Amino acid sequence: MAKVFEAADASNLMTELRMSFDAGVTRSYEWRVSQLKKLQVICDNHEPEIVSALHDDLGKPELESSVYEVALLRNSIKLALKQLKNWMAPDKAKTSLTTFPASAEIVSEPLGVVLVISAWNYPFLLSIDPVIGAISAGNAVVLKPSELAPASSSLLAKLLEQYLDPSAVRVIEGAVTETTLLLEQKWDKIFYTGSSKIGRIIMMAAAKHLTPVVLELGGKSPVVIDSDTNLKITVKRIIAGKWGCNNGQACISPDYILTTKEYAPKVIDAMKQELEAFYGKNPMESKDMSRIVNSNHFDRLSKILEEKEVSDKIVYGGQKNRDNLKIAPTIFLDVPLDSLIMSEEIFGPLLPILTLNNLEECFDVIRSRPKPLAAYLFTQNQKLKERFAMTVSAGGIVVNDIAVHLSLPTLPFGGVGESGMGSYHGKFSFDAFSHKKAVLYKSFIGDAAIRYPPYSRGKLRLLKALVNSNLVEVFKVLLGLS
Ligand code: NAD
């Protein structure tokens, strides 16, 4: 039987990792590279085990596991290995007359010992991607994978233990008890991925130690469809981003569609046609869609689906089977705004379509709700694209596709407001786990008496001119001109 994780274990873990960090184990470029290369070996040599664990936990199709988890991780590692020297190099900063002569720079300093708590839906990507950032930035790190994806959690623990430096990188498996014990420790950063409900618990625990947090949360990500669009491609991309990404159990999955009353019938027809082309006449039999993660989530989705005013509005799908945890892609038309399906994040294969009089009303619906993690618009109208990007607030915005912003390391990935705080990916991951330290180097040359007492009107005038970088005034004072 596995040993129970207790308060003393959490405290010993912290002491050990803190000792490694304080001894400088994690700081060198060489150590960071060696650990990143080990993560690369994990991706290269263990892909079949990863795919199999994801199949056990979620019935995730091989393509989704190989591409959206392993290949994305490989890219992150490759980029970090290529850029690490640049990221670690201090950034030169400008100086001014007040500090002359001097030089200044911004040094990216590791924070210390950090905690990464990840979620079950993309258990490898969401665990290892932040760890890449933590290691790149020179931190010691503890990863707590989600207990709701147990095969992935134990494989992560096994592989990280086998390959990475145990003096500075550890995996602690477990659920609420273990996480609560971990949260009692004083971390230098907590990086949490999961629901906003638990996000609040994490932030409260962090506040006790003034620990900074990154909260990668979720929310209801809307999709607006304009009638001036390529409907066939629009619908294919929505289906791929919804049911083709872990069967809707993804944080940036389309949560609901907004379109006009006149255009909705066309959207529904196109969705039916493409869904059948993708998943066949009986999608419950399709091997190309994940199942629901567990019976709790199946029951949660069933409750949303079975609400009277909602189940009446099904225009496609609705089949489900608790024995194999499958729910078919299900589309609803004009469910009430106060129904469960419109009140909470769906996180599953259900997709309501809401119709309004025009697109401005669609935008208003988004603006009137908590800020989502992603917001999508399909249109060919340039003015509309710009208005959407400038006036709708969301963690990220994609025009004419779904979820693909996540694959661009040049874009920060994270939420705003209710969908989270902080961001990562590419250099943003490195920055998320670094302290940007201000460093100013001065010499003993040019020691100006005007900054020292006894103060005088002349000194005051000259200092003010210097602080304001007013060269004309500086010369006037020096030349004794009024
Ligand atoms: P989850 O149940 O796996 O929980 C996430 C983590 O929180 C787990 O490690 C779990 O052990 C821990 N946890 C659960 N209860 C806790 C408690 N009481 N105290 C301390 N820790 C606790 O995942 P979830 O919350 O169901 O994940 C789904 C949510 O995550 C959705 O809202 C989704 O949108 C969001 N999400 C966001 C992202 C992102 O990148 N922004 C990615 C994936 C999921």
Descriptive account of the structure:
The protein is of the alpha/beta class and 482 residues long. It folds into two domains: 7-217 and 425-435, Aldehyde Dehydrogenase, Chain A, domain 1, CATH 3.40.605; 221-414, Aldehyde Dehydrogenase, Chain A, domain 2 (3-Layer(aba) Sandwich). The chain has 18 helices and 18 strands. It has helices spanning 7-22, 29-45, 47-58, 62-88, 125-136, 150-163, 176-183, 196-208, 231-242, 264-279, 295-306, 308-311, 340-343, 359-367, 382-391, 427-432, 457-467, 471-478; strands spanning 91-93, 102-110, 113-117, 140-144, 169-171, 189-193, 213-216, 221-225, 254-260, 314-316, 320-321, 326-327, 330-333, 350-356, 374-378, 396-399, 420-421, 434-442. A seven-stranded mixed β-sheet has the order 10-13-14-9-8-15-16, with helices on both faces. α2 runs antiparallel to α4. The mean pLDDT is 97. Nicotinamide-adenine-dinucleotide is lined by residues 117-121, 126, 144, 146-148, 175-176, 179-180, 193-195, 198, 201, 216-218, 251, 345, 347, 373, 415, 420.
SSE inventory with pairings:
Elements: H1 7-22, H2 29-45, H3 47-58, H4 62-88, E1 91-93, E2 102-110, E3 113-117, H5 125-136, E4 140-144, H6 150-163, E5 169-171, H7 176-183, E6 189-193, H8 196-208, E7 213-216, E8 221-225, H9 231-242, E9 254-260, H10 264-279, H11 295-306, H12 308-311, E10 314-316, E11 320-321, E12 326-327, E13 330-333, H13 340-343, E14 350-356, H14 359-367, E15 374-378, H15 382-391, E16 396-399, E17 420-421, H16 427-432, E18 434-442, H17 457-467, H18 471-478
Parallel strand pairs: 3-4, 3-6, 4-5, 6-7, 8-9, 8-15, 9-14, 13-14, 15-16
Antiparallel strand pairs: 1-2, 2-18, 7-17, 10-13, 11-12
This protein binds nicotinamide-adenine-dinucleotide (NAD).
Residues 117-121, 126, 144, 146-148, 175-176, 179-180, 193-195, 198, 201, 216-218, 251, 345, 347, 373, 415, 420 line the site of nicotinamide-adenine-dinucleotide.
